[in-house]
Amino acid sequence: MVRRRLSWLLVCAISLVGVSVVPPQNAAASPRAVQTGSGLVRGVSVDHIEQFLGVPFAEADRFAPPRSPGRWGGVRTADRHGPQCPQKTPGPVPLPNSIPFPSSEDCLSIDLYVPAGTTSQDKLPVMVYLFGGAYVLGSTFQYDSPADLVRRGRVIVAIPNYRVGPFGFLSLPELARQNGGVSGTLGTADQQAALRWVRDNIGEFGGNSGNVTLFGESAGGMSVCTQIASPGSRGLFRRAIIQSGACARSPLVPPTRESGYERSIAYASSLGCRTPSTRLSCLRKLPVDRLLESPTTGFDSAKTTWGPFIDGVIVTKTPEEALREGAARSMPLIIGSNAEEGDIFVALFEYMKGRNPTEDGFRSMVRDLYPDKADAVLAAYPVERYPSPALAMSAVYTDSLFACPAQTTSEAAIEGGARVWQYRFAAAPLGRPHPLVPRSFHGAELTYLFSRLGGVPIPWAGPSRELALQLRDQWAGFARNGSPEAAGLPDWTPTQVGSPHYLSISDSGSAMRSDFGRLHQCDLWADPPR
């Protein structure tokens, strides 16, 4: 039974499991070589766009900040993704014709997707995408073709790797002393290095370095939040899209420096590196596989260990504080979440562990995650209201971790002077024939934005195809003009203080609504409760 339930995880697994598949058969060498600050690169023409894959944007030693990449002679072939940064593969959920994707600590590369025929004179809008994965997973390979978004929207999409887990977010006092205070934020610094590379090089590819939109999903959405708040990102992008990765009330919100030290010291001790004077050198000597043995490097709980911490240099305050204080003043923002985000987490944390969720399991989950308000949560989500305990779990995950934090993020941004378009994505990629089939799950919108995920084409047809075109037009239009509103698209007006309108996005029709807080019981999840 559990194995049959896992069959629907294929689409979800594409965004989690690092694999390599056979490249598209219509690939051919790009007609041009492009000059970067490190040397010439030549990509490939595929899907009627140019792809420049695996271009180094930085180098870094273990637990050290990124630095400028080295130079190369001749023309570098950029026809395949660079290796993913070290991470523990969840699973196993194999994809057809797949082989393990290469992994290396030398992983700071960026993939560029450019409309065919673009020249350095075109000055196209640029969209930099930050992938998700709870800050312990993710790579450029998984999002390997935004071809239709690029072609149809006439935008350049850039997707960088960044370090995850302890490689990107280890936080120790001795690391701070070595790195000028930077500690627990190396993955965030990698993202900034990629943005600087885009600023300095994208013009040669035909992009406008003055018109960059930063967007991301899940931990990538929180990464967008963190970059909005970070002083080091000022001027590197003009607009932002935050998908299912709210800047507020999330377990991925950057905690204090002291919390970072506590978590990282416990991690080091678990690997036998206990002495403060030798702890860092001990960790640097361990093989990659040993560093990944810790349970903290996996993704099997809503509780998190890894992610950026407030180090006082790269990250100086929480994104919510920064938004309320005006960090995004006058910045256009799209902020949203999906209707049933929690479906995938029930699958990952329950079904993939061979467990069938029960009423007792639901109660235990609530008390474990929300000990201070468990009684109120259980009263607001009585399990008998739902067809199954699994769907009760999904509702709590959805509302507490994504929906209501997205609403709080919108409120904070508007308070700080940002212009916000909020959405709720309600399309179900796999349909809704049975309660065990995921609905509008976490990451569902990515199957409409991208043309291929993990090497697997997404051949939408009918209303789903129309929705994919709508979403791509809205995102590309926002990147070009700072607004997702345009003729031929559903009306989508900005959210206002005291008037919480949002766009309900669905393949059965997208329309403005104002019942978001009621649908997701956001009064309960407010801090303090309303």
From TrEMBL:
Gene3D superfamilies: alpha/beta hydrolase
EC category name: hydrolase
Key words of the record: Hydrolase, Signal
Coiled coil: none
Sequence segments annotated as region (Disordered): 73-93
Annotated ranges, domain Carboxylesterase type B: 32-525
EC number(s) per entry: 3.1.1.-
Residues annotated as signal peptide: 1-27
MF GO annotations: carboxylic ester hydrolase activity
UniProt similarity note: Belongs to the type-B carboxylesterase/lipase family.
Protein name per its UniProtKB record: Carboxylic ester hydrolase
Organism whose genome encodes this protein: Gordonia terrae
